[in-house]
Amino acid sequence: MPQLAPVRPATYAPPAPAPHPVAPDAVERCPSCGAERPARFCPECGEARVEAEDFTLRTFVSHAFEQFTSVDGALWRTLRALMLRPGQLTADWVAGRRRGYARPLQLFVLVNVAFFLLLSAAGTGFRFRLEQYTHGRVSTIVLRDTTAVQQAVARKAARERITVAEYARRFDAASGRQQSVWLLLAPSLGALLAVLYARRRRPFVQHLVFAIHFLAFMLLFLAAWMGTLSVVLHGVVRAARALPVEQRWLWPYVETFVRLANDDNVIGVPALAVVAAYLFVALRRVYPESWRWTLARTAVLAWVLPRLFDGYRDVLFAVTYYTT
Fold it and tell me: With the C-alpha atoms ordered 97, 100, 104, 108, is the resulting torsion angle positive or negative?
C-alpha cells in the first residue's frame, strides 16, 4: 500500500496592505447655483470664477466703464429700445424675450434717480417749494384752497415753535428727498390700463410693466425737454443782458419769451403731444387692435396723466408735511 506524502502545514501569508484610496480631485461648485464648474464659467448659470484680479480697483473701474459704454450693454440696449421703439420692451418682456435687457423695476429706479439728479443740476425739475402750495402755483387735486394750506402750515409751525419762514426752509429741504413717491404712479397707471383692457384678461403685472416702461420714457423725455428749455432760457437771458444800449428795445420780446417759457400750459402742450404720440404707438404694439380703439384709449390716458401728476403733487405735499 503506497504511503501518502505527509501534509505540510500551510504557511500563513499576511494579506497585502490595501492601497490607500486615491482622493478624487476636488470638485469646484458654483456659489450661485451649486452646479459643478469645471471651467471658469458655470455651464448652468454662467457665473464666473472669482480671480484675485477681480478685486483690484483697475478691474472694478474697467468693468463698470465697459457696462456703461459698451454698445452691447444691457442698459444701453434697453434705453435704445425704450426711446426708439415704443412698446417693444413690454412686448418682448411679455413674450419672454428678456435676455439682454434691464429688468423693468431696475430700469425705472435708475431712470428715476437720473431724472431728478439731472434736473436738480439744471436748476429745474419736480421739486416743489412750500410757497408754491401756499400761493396756488402748483396744480393739485386736493390742495385747491390756498387759505386752508396757509392755515395748516401756520398751525404746524406753531406746534414746532418756529416761524413759518423757518418751517418753509425745512419743508423745501425735505421736499427734494421725497421724490420716491413718484413710484406710486406706476401701479396707478397699471390699474387704469387693466380697466381699459379688462376684456383682454391679462395679468396685472403685464399692465404694470407697460406702465413702468412708459413712465421711464416719459421721465427721460421730460428731462431732455426741460433741460433743453432751461439751457435755452439761460442763454437768451445772458445774451439779452449783454446787449448794447441801442438794442435794449429787444427787452420786451425777451421778457415775453421768458414768461412763456415758464408757463406750464405753453411748454406742456408740445410735451404732451409727443408723449401722446409715443403712447399711441406703444399701445398698438403691446395691445394690438384697430387704430380707432387705440386712439380712443390714448385720449383717455392723455386726459388722465395730468390728473395723476396733480395727485402726485398732493401726495408729495402730504408726505413732506407729515414727516417734517
Answer: negative
Given this model, what pLDDT does residue 204 score? 92
Q: Tell me: the pLDDT tens digits for 178-195? A: 666 677 888 999 999 999
CA distances (Å), origin 20, targets 16, 17, 59: 12, 9, 44
Phi/psi at 113 (5° precision): -65, -45
Separation between Cα atoms, residue 175 and residue 178, nearest integer Å: 5
Write b or e for each residue in 272-298: b if 16 or more Cβ atoms lie within 10 A of its Cβ, otherwise e: eeebbebbbebbbbbbeeeeeebeebb
Beta pairing partners, 212: none
- Alpha-carbon span 169 to 125, nearest angstrom: 18
DSSP codes, 264-299: HHHHHHHHHHHHHHHHHHHHHHHS---HHHHHHHHH
Terminal-to-terminal C-alpha distance of the chain: 125
What ranges do the domains of the chain cover? 104-126+181-322, 128-175
- Cβ(110)–Cβ(102) under 8 Å? yes
C-alpha cell at 15: 494579506
Question: Which tops the pLDDT comparison, 26 or 236?
Answer: 236
171 contacts 320 by C-beta, under 8 angstroms: yes
| CA-based nearest residue to 284, from 105, 90, 96 | 90
Claim: this prediction has a pTM higher than 0.85 = no
